[in-house]
Each structure stands twice: as C-alpha cells, then as structure tokens.
Amino acid sequence: MALSLLTPNSLTKIPLTKLRFVPSLSPPPPPPPRAASVSFRRLSIMSSSNGIKVGAAQMTSTNDLDANFNTCSRLVQEAAAEGVKLLCFPETFSFVGMKAGESLQIAEPLDGPTMRRYCSLARDSNIWLSLGGFQEKGPDDAHLYNTHVLVDNYGNIKNIYRKIHLFDVDVPGNMTYKESDFTTAGTDIVAEDSPIGRLGLTVCYDLRFPELYQQLRFQHNAQILLVPSAFTKVTGEAHWEILLRARAIETQCYVIAAAQAGKHNEKRESYGDSLIIDPWGKILARLPDRLSTGIAIADIDLSIVDAVRTRMPISEHKRLESCQKISSLSSL
User: What keywords would UniProt list here (predicted)?
Assistant: First the structure.
C-alpha cells in the first residue's frame, strides 16, 4: 500500500509499513481511565525508506524536578531504542509550578545543574533533544525567559530560542493567565541545522502568529518546525490540530508538536495530543489518546519537502511585498 501526496500521479509514493494510524479528520477517541502509574504508549509510522526517525513526547509535568527528569529519561531511553534521532519535549517539560512564583524560584541559567542534567542525558543516549520551554533565569529577579533549548547528541547546546509571544489571555470558562508578569519576551527568530534537517524553533502561543513561521520558512529556510506546547484544554479542543496543520500547509514544512497533557495540579490542565505532521498537512503520528505519557514517532524525509515545494512553488509566487511597495509608491 502507498500514500500519494497531491494527486495519485504526483510526488513520491510513500510506503506505509507497520501502520497503525488514527485518521486525522476524526477526533481522537475518548481517553481511558488513567492508571496511578505512568504508562508509556507510542504510535510509529514508517513514512519513507529514506526517512530519519523523530519523536514527539507527551507528558504531564508537575512541580517535582526529579520526577519530571525521570519521566523524560525513560522516554529518551525508549526513543533511542527505537532509533529516534531527535526527540522533542513539550513546553515546561522540567517543571510546572503549583503556586505563583514557583517557576521564578527554580529558574536557572543554561549552564545550571538542571540543563546540564538534560545535556548529559542527550549525550549518554546519543540523541538530539528539543527541550521546549525551559525556565531560564531572566534579566532580573522578577522575570525569567521561556526558552526552547536545542541539544545535540554530544550534549552540547546548539541553539536557544526565547519565546517571543507571551500568553496574556483570559480564556473563557477556563483561566486567566498573564505570562508577561514573570516572563521577559525574546526578540530573535531562530533556525538551526541538524542531521534531521533545518529546524525552526518556536514555543506554544507562537503558533497563533503565522508571520513567525513564514519568516522561518522563507527567510531562514526551515524544513521542520518545532512547536513544543502546553495548550489549555479549552483552546486545544478548539484550535490545536487546525493551527498546526495550517502552519505545515502554508510553510510546506514538517511540524513536530510535543504537548503537555492532563492535570498538572488542581489549577492547571493541558490539552495534550502530540502530533507529527507532513508538509502537505497530513498527520503522520499521534498517540492512541491525547492524555497518555508516551512518544509519537514518524520518519522525516526531506525529499518529501522538496517534492511538495516543487509541485506547488509558493516561494516563487509570493507577491505581497511587491504589492506593498507598489501601494506605497502610488500613495505619493
């Protein structure tokens, strides 16, 4: 059996082997009752014989640094055993505070003990890690940075992205949250080369600002967009999958979206549903339910990126900048 993108006669035929697929156009099944112990589940899809395996982790972080690290360590070991070369963790993977101010209290510089621990984990497991949303010590005692840290398989920090768009919202029927009260926004757009491809780094609420992803694709040549997140249940149900697939389609990039899932404490709950999406907007991998701790695994094949972009060359068709220049001249 083969999957064809665009039309039956176009693009590369992709063999679907060992397929266990949850259709992207149907909502995920209702989650089973959660066991007291953490269960690890995964969905693996072989999208191409030329692909490189990547994983999107799903977890429920708490305010226990050690417990969160132990969960991450187990997921890394599982991913490495499956041949995954890049494992992506969600926003706030290492810590989710229960009380106001807790995140500031545990914030550390990037050379602090917590990040060194995760760098060692990457080195010991010979795997790249996307650590999406680390509480990095900020410019003053009242602020931190929400920092996406990319670590290579030697345990070196290859690049960092500090979240630009801060989550200052009043979610109807859910929560009021003002991230800017304790977080300083970043200013730099970041893309980095890796053995998997050129990665564009973002964090969670960035997903609602397509111009960031447009710049990552058209100005920074990204091939794979990383979207570590901790979406609320309300916003996740409404927009999570739709926004992720839109970003993939409009940039013709793979999207890897690792998600926090379930109840972190009495006050905070995340939507979950970690996804890996191809450049045509098709979901390649997701867990059997959106709340389990585990890994969604799929193959990244950059020839698919090239094929989609060749068949539909939107980079050659972009006209907006020219139209803006013409409009400016006509108004003189």
Answer: Hydrolase
